[in-house]
């Protein structure tokens, strides 16, 4: 830790720098090419310099209602985020207390990460297909009117939501583990000694301390959902999420508009990260200040 | 892909509306207009058409653009996820047995009897054209509205109303090839090693390969669109050999992938769609849609409605289809290099010089502009492949679903893995 | 706490929100020695342990999600892989045909399609691991041992994660203008006079695929290794140095063994991601290179669900076997 900065440091720093360059190569390509002139194509050399493609993007990309797709992905991302935070938090509490079958549930969470996404996606797609078939058979057998028009149960907030949760929840759970491992039960004991009820302790002691971690889980849930493609691919209903729509677009758009979109999403994501980070730092500082004041 | 001023204003308006904090559904803005969810490939979906339909009929089109195979899949597995489907005729062999499509009533299609003979009889101006594969003629009529089998003679029930169709051939980069290309067999010519590409939609790609095999004189198929297992093996073997020899640069799966491959010079010869060639040229890159002596591989797609569609939505679907055949949309598609179902009405909506260039194969009297106003051809140019009659008349086979489809897909995977 | 016999470090924090929770791994101070055994914690909690039944209620949503969206789908996939099918429907009649088709020709001398596809995919796993592992380790080591300020470390971490916020799809296609026949790299090299003919193999090749995998997946290696490194008690290293060990010896005999869990987890991640991929190989390989995921996707597109299901089951088995092998090699449970 405290060894002087020798050759190893500079060597590793160089590796790190190169990695960052490598990492940003495509991002910078996108950034540069999105500012091409109106006659620009998808490749170098640059044809002029303008914000033409951003204007185009604002007007809409081809036939796809990209903003509707964005709204759908945002909405789904937020729902996934909320569910991930809620479910992972309570599951974390449960694991802390311990319960019969905890090992099994944990093994499930880990396997949810390990099973290839395409397999999960196919499975969910199949599940819903069979459900649909069953409902149709039921409709034919019973003649119940409300079942006759059944199309599919697949959709953004059914199959796709489930697919996303199988991806975000394990991450959320692992973060909660890490956090609870370092959580000092003395706080709770103190709260109880002062006469707080269980829910009160949770609300006024546990949650405030855990806020930064919960923000982390939330960010995670949202990002993973917002950019999720493989698990959604076979489990989406009629309306696509943004990554799926983008995948379609890459094969149907031949202009730098698609790069402009990339630039915009990166910028927006950067903003979201920055805000969340700032918020977390601020909360931590405030907590530290309060703790100091409390002393 | 420049936008016309009118479209730009509209889109700005739409964007402004979308930006206001409403529910996100455009339906709020007009007095109960009907929205049709339009499932299809990006080929015939265009925001200009959507805009025009909204003006003329007050119908809102909500496009769901997916790739060819995905259209079929959704039609079979999620029949309620769309109100109108624009699918290839060959997909019918899969979709119809699922019972998810309803026959269209010919009496409600005003111009049904004006639809070109390519679909109704398999003819162009009285001359029979290639019938191999799933020719639309074979799957055009139904025994009854909800029949699951095709009728061999004309009936009152139609499967799909044609939207666009065309004849595919090889696209080439004349500036990089520098020698005449006359036959499908040139696709696998060692001259173009590492610079060729084919379509990675198995059922279509294999037909391109069959054209090559036949052109090289090795074998003549009974029906290229419905091969036996032995024929599939033979064709795939040819493809595998070519792949191992490094013939292909990449495979393409969608319209614009083919454009990008050609425009960037990654490939110099590949099977291609006519408008894709147009698009490459619009980027200032020389590209020719090369007519070949063995003829074209044709495809066609059309509108169908799901069985569950009823009431106002069904009426709207019929209104829209009738509108689509009435000329404006046909002219719009013709100007991109596709062909429309009812030629007479499209002609009325095109300038005589445009009609002469696109449909009659005559030299352009004036500069030819695309629907979006970009320059496509300068005055004096002629269209590759000539007139409608020459092109559609030289069709050798149609995109198809084979009886041995499952086996074919397996062999195709073998080809990809080779 | 019987459930926590397998407590992974918070691998999750890698992508995007990495470390935004600002807890231990990014703390400027040396983190505490490996997490305390949970029994101990349980005993600390014990005096005021709330009703156990509450725990079931709290864990139920999680269990339910995994039941509905993981267990049942996988079971169904297994069942459907044994069904017959035609062009448009799944027929619930038992058959082993899907598996027979899958392994058709595998007994003959020439490699069958399935084997060939798996070999190709496994080749990418090995190549990707061969690069991401040392690279990930070097970067994690740099961040854990050479960066002293917690804030700087967090900043560098974020620097690594920001590109991951742009859609995968867009990032992938943006390699094309760089690597293409007339791309930036080829043009630059030609302008410099280093090459005459463009290097064809930059794009639509194994190279391009591995490059994209390294680009996408290294971060999944960095984070778990970093976590393991951060948990190493620095006194161990000091002790080793005091005992006269050289830098290389410390690295090899002290640090590396203690990082094994992180390496194992990173390896598992990368293996899974590469094995199941179907987009990267397609785009970067010009649709010309086979991958298991791609085969499944094609079969799905052609409505051959049972065949796809059979493929998925085999893929699942292959991945689980590989991971089992890995955990055998490293004995994850003991290490953690």
TrEMBL record, chain A:
<protein>
    <submittedName>
        <fullName>Putative spermidine/putrescine transport system permease protein</fullName>
    </submittedName>
</protein>
<feature type="domain" description="ABC transmembrane type-1">
    <location>
        <begin position="70"/>
        <end position="277"/>
    </location>
</feature>
<feature type="transmembrane region" description="Helical">
    <location>
        <begin position="156"/>
        <end position="180"/>
    </location>
</feature>
<dbReference type="GO" id="GO:0055085">
    <property type="term" value="P:transmembrane transport"/>
</dbReference>
<dbReference type="InterPro" id="IPR051789">
    <property type="entry name" value="Bact_Polyamine_Transport"/>
</dbReference>
<comment type="similarity">
    <text>Belongs to the binding-protein-dependent transport system permease family. CysTW subfamily.</text>
</comment>
<dbReference type="GO" id="GO:0005886">
    <property type="term" value="C:plasma membrane"/>
</dbReference>
<keyword id="KW-0812">Transmembrane</keyword>
<keyword id="KW-0813">Transport</keyword>
<dbReference type="InterPro" id="IPR035906">
    <property type="entry name" value="MetI-like_sf"/>
</dbReference>
<feature type="transmembrane region" description="Helical">
    <location>
        <begin position="74"/>
        <end position="95"/>
    </location>
</feature>
<feature type="transmembrane region" description="Helical">
    <location>
        <begin position="258"/>
        <end position="283"/>
    </location>
</feature>
<keyword id="KW-1133">Transmembrane helix</keyword>
<feature type="transmembrane region" description="Helical">
    <location>
        <begin position="201"/>
        <end position="222"/>
    </location>
</feature>
<dbReference type="InterPro" id="IPR000515">
    <property type="entry name" value="MetI-like"/>
</dbReference>
From TrEMBL, chain B:
<dbReference type="InterPro" id="IPR006311">
    <property type="entry name" value="TAT_signal"/>
</dbReference>
<dbReference type="InterPro" id="IPR006059">
    <property type="entry name" value="SBP"/>
</dbReference>
<protein>
    <submittedName>
        <fullName>Putative spermidine/putrescine transport system substrate-binding protein</fullName>
    </submittedName>
</protein>
<keyword id="KW-0574">Periplasm</keyword>
<keyword id="KW-0732">Signal</keyword>
<dbReference type="Pfam" id="PF13416">
    <property type="entry name" value="SBP_bac_8"/>
</dbReference>
UniProtKB/TrEMBL annotation, chain C:
<dbReference type="InterPro" id="IPR035906">
    <property type="entry name" value="MetI-like_sf"/>
</dbReference>
<comment type="similarity">
    <text>Belongs to the binding-protein-dependent transport system permease family. CysTW subfamily.</text>
</comment>
<feature type="compositionally biased region" description="Pro residues">
    <location>
        <begin position="27"/>
        <end position="36"/>
    </location>
</feature>
<keyword id="KW-1003">Cell membrane</keyword>
<keyword id="KW-0812">Transmembrane</keyword>
<feature type="transmembrane region" description="Helical">
    <location>
        <begin position="124"/>
        <end position="144"/>
    </location>
</feature>
<feature type="transmembrane region" description="Helical">
    <location>
        <begin position="156"/>
        <end position="176"/>
    </location>
</feature>
<keyword id="KW-0813">Transport</keyword>
<feature type="transmembrane region" description="Helical">
    <location>
        <begin position="207"/>
        <end position="226"/>
    </location>
</feature>
<keyword id="KW-0472">Membrane</keyword>
<feature type="transmembrane region" description="Helical">
    <location>
        <begin position="305"/>
        <end position="326"/>
    </location>
</feature>
<keyword id="KW-1133">Transmembrane helix</keyword>
<protein>
    <submittedName>
        <fullName>Putative spermidine/putrescine transport system permease protein</fullName>
    </submittedName>
</protein>
<feature type="domain" description="ABC transmembrane type-1">
    <location>
        <begin position="118"/>
        <end position="326"/>
    </location>
</feature>
<dbReference type="InterPro" id="IPR000515">
    <property type="entry name" value="MetI-like"/>
</dbReference>
């Amino acid at each position: 830790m405290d060894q002087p900065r020798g050759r190893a440091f500079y060597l590793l720093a160089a590796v790190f720098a190169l990695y960052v360059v490598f990492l940003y190569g495509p991002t910078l390509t996108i950034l540069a090419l999105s500012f091409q002139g109106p006659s620009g194509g998808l490749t170098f050399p640059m044809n002029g310099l303008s914000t033409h493609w951003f204007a185009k993007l604002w007007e809409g990309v081809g036939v796809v209602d990209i903003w509707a797709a964005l709204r759908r992905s945002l909405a789904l991302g937020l729902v996934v985020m909320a569910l991930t935070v809620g479910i992972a938090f309570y599951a974390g509490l449960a694991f802390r207390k311990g319960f019969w079958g905890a090992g099994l549930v944990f093994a499930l969470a880990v396997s949810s990460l390990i099973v290839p996404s395409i397999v999960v996606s196919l499975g969910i797609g199949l599940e819903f297909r069979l459900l649909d078939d069953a409902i149709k058979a039921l409709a034919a057998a019973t003649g119940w009117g409300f079942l006759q028009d059944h199309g599919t149960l697949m959709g953004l907030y059914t199959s796709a939501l489930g697919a996303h949760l199988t991806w975000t929840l394990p991450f959320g759970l692992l973060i909660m583990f890490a956090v609870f491992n370092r959580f000092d039960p003395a706080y709770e004991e103190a709260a109880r000694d002062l006469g707080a009820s269980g829910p009160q302790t949770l609300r006024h002691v546990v949650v405030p301390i855990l806020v930064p971690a919960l923000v982390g889980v939330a960010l995670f849930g949202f990002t993973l959902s917002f950019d999720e493609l493989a698990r959604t691919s076979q489990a989406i209903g009629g309306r696509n999420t943004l990554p799926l729509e983008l995948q379609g677009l890459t094969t149907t758009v031949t202009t730098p508009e698609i790069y402009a979109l990339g630039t915009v999403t990166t910028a927006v994501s950067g903003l979201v990260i920055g805000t969340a980070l700032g918020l977390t730092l601020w909360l931590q500082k405030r907590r530290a200040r309060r703790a100091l004041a409390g002393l | 892909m420049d936008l016309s001023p009118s479209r730009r204003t509209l889109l700005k308006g739409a964007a402004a509306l979308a930006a206001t904090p409403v529910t996100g559904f455009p339906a709020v803005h007009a007095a109960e207009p009907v929205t049709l969810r339009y499932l299809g490939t990006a080929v015939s979906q265009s925001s200009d058409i959507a805009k025009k339909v909204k003006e003329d009929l007050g119908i809102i089109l909500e496009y769901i653009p997916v790739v060819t195979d995905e259209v079929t899949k959704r039609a079979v597995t999620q029949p309620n996820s769309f109100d109108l489907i624009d699918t290839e005729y060959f997909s019918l062999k899969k979709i119809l047995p699922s019972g998810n499509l309803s026959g269209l009533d010919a009496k409600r299609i005003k111009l049904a009897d004006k639809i070109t003979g390519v679909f109704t009889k398999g003819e162009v101006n009285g001359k029979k054209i290639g019938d191999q594969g799933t020719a639309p003629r074979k799957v055009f009529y139904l025994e009854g509205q909800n029949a699951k089998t095709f009728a061999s003679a004309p009936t009152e029930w139609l499967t799909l109303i044609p939207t666009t169709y065309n004849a595919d051939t090889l696209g080439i980069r004349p500036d990089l090839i520098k020698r005449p290309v006359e036959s499908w067999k040139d696709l696998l010519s060692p001259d173009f090693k590492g610079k060729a590409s084919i379509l990675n939609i198995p059922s279509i790609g294999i037909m391109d390969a069959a054209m090559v095999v036949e052109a090289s004189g090795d074998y003549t198929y009974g029906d290229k669109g419905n091969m036996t297992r032995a024929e599939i093996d033979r064709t795939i073997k040819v493809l595998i050999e070519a792949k191992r020899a490094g013939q292909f640069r990449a495979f393409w799966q969608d319209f614009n992938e083919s454009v990008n491959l050609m425009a960037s010079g990654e490939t110099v010869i590949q099977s291609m769609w006519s408008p894709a060639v147009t698009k490459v040229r619009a980027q200032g890159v020389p590209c020719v849609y090369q007519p070949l002596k063995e003829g074209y591989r044709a495809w066609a797609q059309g509108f169908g409605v799901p069985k569950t569609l009823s009431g106002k939505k069904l009426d709207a679907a019929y209104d829209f289809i009738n509108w689509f055949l009435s000329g404006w949309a046909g002219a719009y598609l013709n100007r991109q290099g596709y062909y429309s179902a009812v030629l007479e009405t499209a002609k009325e909506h095109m300038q005589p010089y445009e009609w002469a260039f696109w449909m009659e194969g005559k030299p352009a009297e004036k500069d030819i502009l695309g629907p979006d106003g970009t320059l496509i051809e300068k005055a004096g140019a002629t269209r590759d492949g000539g007139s409608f009659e020459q092109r559609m008349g030289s069709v050798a086979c149609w995109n198809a679903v084979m009886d041995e489809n499952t086996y074919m897909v397996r062999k195709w995977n073998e080809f990809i893995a080779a | 706490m019987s459930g926590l016999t397998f407590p992974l470090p918070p691998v999750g924090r890698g992508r995007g929100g990495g470390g935004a929770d600002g807890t231990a791994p990014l703390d400027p101070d040396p983190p505490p020695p490996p997490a305390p055994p949970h029994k101990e914690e349980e005993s600390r909690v014990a005096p005021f342990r709330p009703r156990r039944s509450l725990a079931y209620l709290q864990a139920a949503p999680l269990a339910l999600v995994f039941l509905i969206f993981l267990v049942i789908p996988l079971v169904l996939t297994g069942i459907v892989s044994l069904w017959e099918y035609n062009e448009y429907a799944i027929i619930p009649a038992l058959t082993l045909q899907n598996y027979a088709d899958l392994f058709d020709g595998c007994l003959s001398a020439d490699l069958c399609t399935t084997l060939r596809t798996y070999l190709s995919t496994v080749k990418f796993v090995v190549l990707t691991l061969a690069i991401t592992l040392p690279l990930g380790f070097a970067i994690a080591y740099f961040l854990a041992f050479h960066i002293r300020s917690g804030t700087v470390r967090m900043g560098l971490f974020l620097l690594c994660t920001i590109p991951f916020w742009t859609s995968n799809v867009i990032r992938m296609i943006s390699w094309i203008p760089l690597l293409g026949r007339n791309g930036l790299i080829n043009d630059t090299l030609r302008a410099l006079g280093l090459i005459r003919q463009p290097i064809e193999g930059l794009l639509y090749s194994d190279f391009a695929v591995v490059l994209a995998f390294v680009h996408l997946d290294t971060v999944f290696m960095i984070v778990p290794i970093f976590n393991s490194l951060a948990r190493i008690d620095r006194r161990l290293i000091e002790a080793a140095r005091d005992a006269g060990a050289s830098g290389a010896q410390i690295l090899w005999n002290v640090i590396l063994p203690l990082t094994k869990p992180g390496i194992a987890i990173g390896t598992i991640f990368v293996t899974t991601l590469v094995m199941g991929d179907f987009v990267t190989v397609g785009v970067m390989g010009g649709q010309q290179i086979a991958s298991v995921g791609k085969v499944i996707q094609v079969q799905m597109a052609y409505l051959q669900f049972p065949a796809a299901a059979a493929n998925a089951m085999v893929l699942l088995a292959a991945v689980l076997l590989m991971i089992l092998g890995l955990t055998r090699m490293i004995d994850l449970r003991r290490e953690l």
